[in-house]
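Lab notebook page, bench 4
Experiment: in silico fold of construct C2
Operator: M.H.
Input chain length: 398 residues
Purpose: comparison with the prior construct
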Amino acid sequence: MQCFKKVLFYLAALFFFVAISDQAFAAKSTNFYEYSNAKGVTVINYHSFGDYKEIANINITAKLFREQLQMLKDSGYTTITEEQLIAYLQGHGRIPVKSVFLTIDDGFESVYTIAYPILKEMGMQATLFVIVKDVETGYRKGVPMLNWQQIKEMSDSHSIHVGNHTYDLHWRGNNDAPKHEAMILNQTKDGKALTNEERQRYILEDVTKAHQLIEKHTGKAPTSFAYPYGVYDRVAEQAIKEAGYRIDYSTQGGFNMFGDGTVHIKRIDSSNRVSAHDLKKIIENHQKLAEQRYINRDIQVEAQVSSNKVALKAWLKSDMKNGTLQAKETRFELYKMVNGERQLQRNFGSYHVAASSNTKVMSTEENVINYEAGGYSVKSIIIKQNGSKEVFWINFNR
């Protein structure tokens, strides 16, 4: 009998050790994954290369462009690909701690004659957003544009990824006045009035035409879109969403953080007005701000991981202190590690848990006995009343 009690004791101790080990693994792996990942990514945007007086405010000389790229290399930055950026922003991709992403708007010929050779030489890549009508015309503001042969060559080289910048919606009304951009203006280029519904169709038709021509001439369907002048509203957003783009870019300054999502990517403009030293300072400041925001983020998640169940609780620190409820809902998603990358499997547990004054801590759980062996993650996404969101990952093994 005494021997039987000892066996029971050791079995209980073993079960307790396994459960505690799983919980320790969850904490350790989550910290490892997130703290070895970039906290923020600065997207640097260019336009024209050379010295065109017609567009002096968006030019950058070949010398300064090379200096900026060399500064990035010397400072230890990696220029990531758009696929890496998307995975990072969706919350399931790991990238180097010091990462930047390069974009080029419009499609001036100088991209081919100046930027492209330097990018190849440096072993870097960028996404180029072309205004298709101007490519067909050959000029924009009196400055020569790329042709399709040049665009295809760059696309085939893998140094340049080609995105959509509309067919003919990169213009302003009211004598080129700000706040009269085509994407938010309820009229056509020839002055015909449009309702919101008509404007949404108008944008969709234009973007679709550009999409088809880019695919025809490069052999690759564009997957990304940049808003002309960085301007959009609800109608424009809906049109771009309907067009099916995986990621879209604004011209709002700032940096982008892990799990932020792929809508309205923030970018900073670079030109002759930004020295290599200035650019370095901007990026370093973004790195510090992202790190601080990451450390001080509002979301809190508690995980209980055992051999047969994973239970999660998510809440906002601000909701524990303030009378006004900040959280709107929490969503939970299950990912599995496949070849070193997280891959979305399905919704986890209750998936969608609404917050209220009586439910500030939102909970979910799932039986994991029948999970296949391997590494898993649950992504907790708290959506706030103002539409912003915060993300936290919990990892566990089976």
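Observations: The two ends are 34 Å apart (CA to CA). Residues 7-32 have pLDDT under 50 and may be disordered.
Next step: discuss at group meeting.
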